[in-house]
Amino acid sequence: SKDIECPGDSICRCCDTSEFTELSSTVQGNRANVILKRAERQLLNVRITQTVHKLNSLHKEKDCLNSNIENVVPPTLAEEARARVRKSESSEFLATKERQQLKFARLVHKTTKESKTSSLPSECISKWVKNCSDRLLKDPELSVLAKGLNFATAEPEIPMSEVIAQTETACRKIPQREASTLRAEVTALLSRPRKPEDNLTKEERKALKSFQQDKNILILPADKGRLTVVLNKQDYKQKCAALLDDNTMYVKLGKKDPTSKFKKQLISVLQRIEKERGLNRVQYRQIYPTTEVPPKFYGLPKVHKDGVPLRPIVSCIDSITYKCSKFLAEILSPLVGQTQHHVKNSQHFVELVKDQRVEVDEELRSFDVTALFTSVPVDKATEVIRSRLERDQSLTQRTTLSPGQIVDLLEVVLKCTYFIYDGIFYQQIHGAAMGSPVSPIVCNLYLEHLEHIAISTAPHPPLWWFRYVDDTHTKLKKAFASEFTDHLNSLDPDIKFTFESEQNKSLPFLDTLTVVQDDGSLNIDIYRKKTHTDQCLNFHSNHPLDHKLGVIRTLFHRAETIITDQQDKEKEKDHVVQALKLCGYPNWAFHRATKPKPPQERNTTQNQSSTKPNRGLVVLPYIKDTSEALRRIFNKYGIKTCFKPTRTLKKLLVAPKDKTPKESRCGVVYHKRSEGGSLQLA
FRET label pair with 561: which of 249, 388, 423, 539, CA 20 to 30 Å apart? Predict the structure, then answer.
């Protein structure tokens, strides 16, 4: 096709042979297929002939218009008009070319029947999949797991109930007449559903089903890094049991469920606060515990350590204190970060240190708190928070609760540290409840209090101290580094700090690497731990295209905003491109993601967003092509949409937690058949 001159290349751009020439027949057999293929070629020839004729007619019309312009307007105006037409032609040509390249890429993907990870180098698969089980993994099984646990498979059919539920949510936010029209448009679209294209091969589908049926293994994400780990279930249970047998950390409660006891404590405090008018009726019902689902314990494998131990995790989702914890987190979160030592993110850290220097008698050192959640003293932390709330002049703007009432609720939530594992209940002895949304905020506030004492009372305080949760980046005089470390560990017997000194004049912090130059200036680069695998969202995952392009933009933005040396920036971008290509990203995706948006288009988008009414947001399951059509419908009514994948490998394969009985689940609709056969919902 490269040898075809214009107008042949225009023909290639305007002909969509993928659908126009596709024929099908109920007659089976090789002879029927030969006839269909011949007919498709003949139809394509007719289409090309018609297009050539149309192009010739357009060229003649164009020449005629050019001659008419010269007869009607002065030559200078005629030349200006031609220049504008050429500019418009060029702009339209580039836009059309980009659309056709995208279409061609989709056609290539559609006609490719092989797995997209089958050609991965063996070292990539070994980086992305670690088999610690007795099961011998075959190539299709490795291929599935190498896609990553966030890989979303195509839906076998459109989840109608979820789309309808979100549509009804949107209809409650718009006038009744518009709601009726919206329902009709959505119904019309769903009545002619387009079956989602499968993004797994037949062998990979069989491998996925085989994993789901195998009850002797567990598939889990690694504790650090994008890595999928396969464990023997028996080995996993033994490692969990070893963790829970630690009598200094956990106490075994037995099979009796203590949920009702903790629920009564929480309800008692809520009722008292409501009587004191600290909560209105709406807020009371919002955080009232309606379920009795216990927090669930599980472990994630630390593949970077010998023996692959587990990191203990507790999930508090849908537990009795979960809604109350989220409510308290909204009230307390504005208190975090009101110190000069707080770091918001990596970009903020770079802004703080990029112009600093490290002299010969100074060194960089980072401090880390050991087991922060299970170490923080709850009683001391709540008193610190009470003091902060009493001094907070903006508290009344966020809530009607008094500082004492907030602390009363907080104590109930933080001390609700029980959980279930394998049908047995346990309770955490020390620290704040793991998995509770408010616990990170409480730990953060207590460390702010502790760092204030440490710096203000140190004989020789650090020259700078920057902290993100429990990780710190400090500059100290070499002569006083050990003295300050001892001082830090003497402040609270429950909180113990470990430290890491700079190696080869460099020190990692978050995802940055601070390098001290020979002249004392600092160079900042991207830091990757040994557990980093360079695995990102697979391009063939059933995610919206915007999500995939967002991966490219995010990694490129990180390189631009964190790295201080221009050569290092280019090196990092090359690394990102090579890593993403292994995840299936084509060249056109990089061009499209990094292409700057024209100013005129940016202004148009901003004007449209400012003139359209904002009537809320709906979250739709992502089904390729169908979801984009739904977005266009909702946008007409001023309703914003976002998409979420529903069938990720994590949801299909990862199940380490105790299952919640059906009768205890919340946020579901129960249905049953009446005696007459009609459907009843409850």
Answer: 539
